[in-house]
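quick one: calcium ion bound model?
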Amino acid sequence: MTGTTVLVVEDEAAIRTLLRRCLEGDGYAVREARTEAEVLTALKDGPVDLITLDLNLGGESGIEIARAVRKVSTVPIIMVTGKGDVIDRVVGLEVGADDYISKPFHVREVLARVRSVLRRAQTPPTADVPPVPDAGAADDFEFAGFVARASTLELRDASGAAVDLTGGDFKLLQVFLEHPRRVLSREQIMDLLNGPGWSPLDRTIDNQVARLRKKIEKVPGDPKLIKTVRGVGYIFTAKVTQIPASAAPAGEQYA
Ligand code: CA
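yep, here:
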């Protein structure tokens, strides 16, 4: 025995049993829960070193359970997600999950994730703040066929045509490009645009996002690049590649 206890949160008995066997086979003690109430009871009843948390628990949402756990505990959480749950995955990481596994999973993958999350949890953190690219440090960005140049506030689409953006549109786009695939609340977007302490007017951000969508989304009414995360804010879904200015061919510089 490693003396390490894993709490498996899953509503399907077959998957609970699969995870129990795989974890016990590797020397972990396993406890089980199916609902938020059972999870909170389990945390009170004895030590839990790690939680595997299914996101789709029939009636209950794993995201809500992760939130509830984070109010009372810093225990590491590995989310178990369905194939297409990209936004749930991101929200889960935002509300404090440490890692995720996608179904269908292989037991070896589960064990590898569990070990690595436990190892990370046992290493004292050097800094609490996740590394966020320094605003202004990035120069050019590529995403979904577009190229954005921060030095000239210029956006070109895949055909090379310039997209007509105002300075404000570009600033908002740059906030998203510097924080891709992360859920940003309206307040965070406000702070990133204007500096902290700005009193947030949610509608203003919504209007600015709507305007930017009209310029970069194929179908503004069905946005794929800037998605709304209901009750939270927005997420920029595209893969963003940062190109340092020094890496751009000389003729491509517009400084
Ligand atoms: Ca389930």
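The CA atoms of residues 139 and 199 lie 29 Å apart.
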